[in-house]
Amino acid sequence: MNFSFLQRNRSATGISRFPPFLVDTHAHILPALDNGPETLDESISLLQEMSMYGIRKVIATPHIMGDYYQNSVSDILQAQKHLRAELIRRCISIELEVAAEYYLDVSFLSTLENNQTLLPINDTYLLLETSIVGMPSFLEEAIDLVQQRNLIPVLAHPERYHYLQQDFEKVRSLSQKGVLFQVNLGSWQSTHQATRTLAERLVSEGLVSFVGSNVHNSRDWGHAREALRSKTFAQSVEKGLLNQHLL
Ligand SMILES: [Fe+2]
Predict the structure, then answer these.
(1) What is the DSSP string of 20-48?
(2) φ and ψ at 145, to 5 degrees?
(3) Number of structural domains, the chain?
(4) Residue 7 lies in a domain
(5) Lower CB density within 10 Å: C or N end of the chain?
(6) Ligand 1 centre and the CA of 101: distance in Å?
(7) 14: CA distance to ligand 1 center in Å?
């Protein structure tokens, strides 16, 4: 078995020089549900790499997005059941929980208004994403509806949204409303300057509650793995991430 991933996270004395990353809270890892792995084997291969790196729990967050990804709660739970069984069969030691990444559109708004079942992380945190370009006009209404369900809204990868890159006051305003932020590990090394700048600023201002790989394939995992050896990751841990509390 190849342990190079684990070895690369350790110093010559065998003690890691980097903080551990034990819980990944944003991963497209369930097979054939969205733009993540297409097959069970691809899912297993990614989870095996993550396990060998020291990750102990992955929370799968498949997209739920209008007509594109109409994943029902039962589809997601069924996929979790199959993948967990395969992990056990292949003796891969990693916990697999499920939630979803909800795209903020009118269909999500009607899910909230009709009080339909949701899949939050740890029964508490609802992972939300928006259009990259423009802030949805009903963003605040959606946040209120999520909070009325006694859930905490978590905005996925805020650093990627143009409307936040251009206006940090909007970031502060969302934070003051009780929105938490999840930054993608790969964003700290993004070639897109505005994404990298906002990702770093969110950390330095102590506004990052979760970091996630947002893994869809082995290339994404490679970028996330690189970021786990960065000063910015260490700084985000120092400022107090909530990831490890989900173990
Ligand atoms: Fe995602």
Answers:
(1) ---EEEEE--STTSSSS-SSHHHHHHHHH
(2) -65, -40
(3) 1
(4) no
(5) N
(6) 6
(7) 33
Query: Helix, strand or coil for residue 175?
Result: helix
* C-alpha–C-alpha distance, residues 77 and 97, integer Å: 9
The closest of 108, 80, 79 to 95, measured between CA atoms, is: 80
Phi-psi region of 11 (alpha: psi -120 to 50; beta: other; left: phi over 0): beta
What integer pLDDT is reported at residue 191 of this predicted model? Answer: 93
Distance from Cα 13 to the centre of ligand 1, integer Å: 36
In a domain, 164, yes or no: yes
Is the CB of residue 187 less than 8 Å from the CB of residue 164? Answer: no
Q: Is residue 15 part of a domain?
A: no
CATH number for the domain that contains residue 105: 3.20.20.140
CA of 74 to the centre of ligand 1 (A): 19
Q: What is the pLDDT of residue 16?
A: 60
Torsion of CA 233, 235, 240, 246, to 10 degrees: 10
Q: Which structure tokens are listed for 203?
A: 């950390």
**For each successive 10 residues of the chain (247 residues), what is the average pLDDT?**
44 62 98 97 97 97 93 97 98 98 95 96 98 94 97 98 98 98 96 97 98 97 94 95 96
24 CA distance to ligand 1 centroid (A)?
A: 12
Using the mean position of ligand 1's atoms as its centre, give its distance from the Cα of residue 12 in Å: 35
Task: State the residue for tokens 């999500």.
Answer: 108
